């Protein structure tokens, strides 16, 4: 019997330990525009809950199935938005699986491949307009219908799919808020996108962001010129109104095949420049935190706010943490700010009630706990506190 019990316990332990770490989920959408089913992968933020009160920016990128990009990019986005000094907001990451890469990425039809020779393999090129139509009329509306999305979209692409990013910027610049082109193939079709820049430069945009990266290439390879650097020079010489441009030119220690991870990180860091908060802000008034996010929201043209859990951490840190002098009034201000940011969060109201309880502000604590139970009737902690406070008054 003991051996049997030990065996069963071992099986249970192994089963618990064998749980998978889930990065994201695979989905399909039927595209009438492309006349095919398209696969896309979704990675959700750690705080994502299906309760409707939190909204997240969405990052769309191509080549989800290439070189573990989905694993790397979703991981970077999660790490950069975590801890006490997040550099970017939490976001939903949507990776689009490439099926006919040359067809979907090329804005024009050309048979000239990398290397300068013609090939019939490129006969399907020129479908970038259709691919953008698929994104704008099918995939993006589908994502926004099924997930809690904020009104902020980013489009990212690498190499040949970087052409898609530049083409989208040229054609419908207001559809996405930010664009990340990682070493885009601007050599394509006799540098057609460079030639189209002059017309694009006349546009007037509103609070749009562009990040573009490349590296210094070995000049003996085709093409001998780095057309991405030429693009950067053009856009710096003729700035587009309303377009904030960030660029990175890596040295010879990086090349076309090694720069993707660093580019993705720097792209997000630059697009959300100014988002990162100082860890010491928890020792200053909550109004400074609020002003910080008001400023970055105004610059980017979308309402951004800190994570609910982060503001809660600041509140509890000021209330209880004995490593530093506590400040109950400051803690209450952080908790109140959190209920302003997330008025539908029962936990935010519960924490505010706890802070008032700690300060013997029983009437205010009672109001906060009652609000928490209205939002979540199953909050047993708040119910117990309400009972204690009402007994105290009686």
UniProtKB/TrEMBL annotation:
Residues 1-18 form the signal peptide. TPR repeats lie at residues 346-379. InterPro entries: AB_hydrolase_fold, Esterase-like, Siderophore_Hydrolase_D, TPR-like_helical_dom_sf, TPR_rpt. Keywords: Hydrolase, Signal, TPR repeat. The keyword Cell membrane does not apply. The keyword Hydrolase applies. Belongs to the esterase D family. PANTHER family: SIDEROPHORE TRIACETYLFUSARININE C ESTERASE, SIDEROPHORE-DEGRADING ESTERASE (EUROFUNG). This is Esterase.
């Amino acid at each position: 019997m003991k051996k049997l019990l030990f065996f069963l316990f071992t099986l249970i332990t192994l089963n618990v330990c064998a749980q998978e770490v889930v990065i994201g989920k695979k989905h399909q959408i039927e595209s009438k525009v492309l006349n095919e089913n398209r696969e896309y992968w979704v990675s959700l933020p750690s705080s994502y809950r299906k309760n409707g009160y939190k909204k997240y920016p969405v990052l769309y990128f191509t080549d989800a199935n290439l070189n573990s990009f989905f694993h790397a990019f979703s991981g970077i986005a999660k790490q950069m938005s975590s801890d006490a000094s997040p550099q970017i907001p939490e976001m939903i990451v949507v990776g689009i699986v490439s099926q006919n890469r040359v067809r979907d990425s090329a804005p024009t039809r050309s048979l000239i491949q990398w290397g300068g020779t013609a090939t019939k393999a490129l006969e399907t090129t020129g479908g970038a307009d259709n691919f953008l139509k698929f994104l704008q009329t099918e995939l993006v509306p589908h994502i926004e219908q099924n997930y809690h999305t904020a009104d902020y979209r980013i489009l990212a692409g690498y190499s040949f799919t970087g052409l898609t990013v530049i083409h989208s910027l040229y054609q419908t610049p207001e559809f996405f808020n930010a664009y990340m082109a990682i070493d885009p193939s601007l050599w394509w079709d006799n540098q057609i996108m460079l030639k189209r820049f002059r017309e694009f430069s006349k546009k007037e945009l509103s609070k749009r962001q562009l990040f573009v990266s490349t590296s210094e290439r070995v000049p003996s390879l085709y093409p001998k010129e780095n057309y991405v650097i030429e693009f950067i020079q053009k856009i710096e010489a003729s700035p587009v109104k309303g377009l904030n441009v960030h660029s990175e030119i890596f040295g010879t220690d990086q090349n076309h095949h090694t720069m993707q991870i660093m580019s993705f990180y720097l792209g997000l860091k630059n697009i959300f420049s100014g988002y990162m908060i100082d860890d010491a802000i928890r020792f200053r008034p909550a109004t400074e935190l609020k002003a910080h996010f008001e400023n970055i929201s105004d610059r980017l043209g979308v309402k951004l706010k800190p994570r609910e859990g982060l503001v809660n951490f600041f509140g509890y840190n000021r209330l209880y943490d004995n490593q530093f002098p506590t400040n109950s009034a400051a803690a209450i201000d952080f908790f109140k700010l959190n209920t302003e940011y997330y008025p539908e969060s029962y936990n935010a109201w519960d924490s505010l009630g706890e802070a008032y309880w700690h300060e013997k502000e029983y009437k205010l604590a009672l109001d906060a706990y009652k609000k928490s139970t209205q939002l979540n009737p199953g909050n047993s902690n708040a119910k117990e506190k309400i009972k204690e406070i009402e007994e105290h008054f009686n």
